[in-house]
Design brief:
This protein has about 300 residues and is of the alpha+beta class. It has helices at about 20-25, 175-190, 205-225, 230-250, 255-270, 280-295, and strands at about 5-10, 35-45, 50-60, 65-75, 110, 120, 125-130, 145-150, 155-165, 190-200. It folds into two domains: about 5-200, no CATH class; about 205-295. The chain contains six helices and ten strands. The strands form two sheets. A five-stranded antiparallel sheet has the order 1-2-3-8-5, covered by helices on one side. It has a five-stranded antiparallel sheet with strand order 6-7-4-9-10.
Length: about 300
C-alpha cells in the first residue's frame, strides 16, 4: 500500500525593523527580508510503515534574504510512544549531542539535496536541521530547492518549521561575547516560523487512540485556517460524526464498520478539497485516516 499526496503552504511575514534591531545594527548591515515563501510537502507511506516527508522550498523574487537553514520541530512528548529507527536509511552528517534512540525526539533519518552542499542532523533545540555549507548553496530570492527529506515511523502531525535567512555581518577585529549575543539576537528576530506537516509520535498506536488524535488534528486544522469558509461548523460536525462512529465501532470490535466510516470520512475530505479545506488539512487528515484503515485491515 502506498500513498503520495502533495501539500502546499504559502505564507508571509513582514520583518519589523524595531528600534531595538536598528540599534543593534553596525554600519553597512541590513536586515534580510523573507516575505513570501512557498513550502510544498510530499508524503509517502510505505507498506513497512515508514513515512517519507519531502520538502520543497520556494523563495520569492520579492525577498532579499537567502535561506541558509531549515528546521523542523521533532520533539517527542514524554507520554508518547517511543518509536524506532528500524528500516530508516540516513545520510546525516552531524548530530549535536542528541540521543537518536527516540527518548527526546521522534526518530528520523535525514537526506539533503546534496550532502556536500547541505549538512543535516539533530540540534540541541530538538529539531531536524538542514544547513547550507556555503553561500552559493543557499536558496536565493527567485530560486527553488527540493530534496529536503525525512524518513520516520512518526505519523503526520502539525509541526513548527523555521527558515533562517543569511545575515551578513560587518567584519569586526575580534568577536566579543557581546558581539556573539548581538548576532544571535538578530538571527532570532529575522527567522521565519510557520506551521507545516512533520512526523509525530502518538500516545498509542491503538486504533481508538489514533482516531482521538485524528479528531484533535481536525480541530487544530480549523484553528489554523486550513478548514475555512462559511459553513465550517457544519463541516466539522459531519466529519466528527464519522470519526466518532468509527471510534465507537472499534470499541465494539466491529473493525469492518470502523473502516467503512473512515473511508466515508476520506471521501468527504476529497469532496471538500480546495473548497472548504486546503491541501494541508486534506493531506494531514486523509493520510492519518488511511494509516488507521491500514492498521484495522492488518
Amino acid at each position: 500500500m502506498g500513498y503520495k499526496i502533495v501539500s502546499s503552504l504559502i505564507f508571509g511575514l513582514c520583518l519589523l525593523s524595531t528600534n531595538l534591531t536598528k540599534a543593534q545594527l553596525l554600519p553597512g548591515e541590513t536586515l534580510p527580508i523573507l516575505k513570501h515563501v512557498v513550502i510544498e510537502v510530499e508524503v509517502q507511506l510505505s507498506t513497512g510503515g515508514i513515512f517519507l516527508y519531502s520538502y520543497k522550498i520556494f523563495n520569492s523574487i520579492s525577498n532579499t534574504g537567502k535561506i541558509k537553514r531549515i528546521e523542523v520541530d521533532i520533539f517527542r512528548e514524554p507520554q508518547s510512544v517511543k518509536l524506532g529507527l528500524e528500516g530508516l536509511t540516513n545520510d546525516a552528517s552531524f548530530v549535536e549531542g542528541i540521543p537518536v534512540d527516540g527518548s527526546l525526539v521522534v526518530p528520523v533519518a535525514f537526506h539533503a539535496p546534496d550532502p556536500e552542499k547541505w549538512i543535516s542532523g539533530f540540534t540541541t533545540k530538538l529539531t531536524a536541521r538542514w544547513s547550507a555549507v556555503e553561500s552559493q548553496a543557499q536558496i536565493a530570492p527567485g530560486k527553488v530547492l527540493g530534496g529536503f527529506t525525512l524518513q520516520s515511523r512518526g505519523i503526520p502531525g502539525i509541526r513548527s518549521m523555521a527558515l533562517h535567512p543569511l545575515f551578513e555581518q560587518t567584519p569586526v577585529e575580534e568577536a566579543t561575547a557581546e558581539d556573539v549575543a548581538r548576532i544571535r539576537s538578530i538571527a532570532d528576530q529575522i527567522k521565519l516560523t510557520t506551521s507545516t506537516i512533520g512526523p509525530i509520535a502518538p500516545r498509542s498506536l491503538e486504533p481508538s487512540t489514533l482516531i482521538d488524535n485524528l479528531i484533535s488534528l481536525k480541530h487544530q486544522s480549523v484553528s489554523l485556517g486550513w478548514i475555512f469558509g462559511p459553513g465550517v461548523d457544519g463541516i466539522v460536525k459531519s466529519l466528527n460524526a464519522k470519526l466518532e462512529a468509527a471510534k465507537a465501532a472499534v470499541k465494539r470490535n466491529q473493525d469492518k464498520t470502523a473502516i467503512n466510516q473512515l473511508k466515508a470520512f476520506i471521501k468527504e475530505l476529497e469532496a471538500l478539497r480546495g473548497k472548504k479545506l486546503n491541501d494541508n488539512a486534506y493531506f494531514l487528515l486523509k493520510v492519518n485516516a488511511e494509516f488507521i484503515v491500514a492498521k484495522l485491515e492488518s
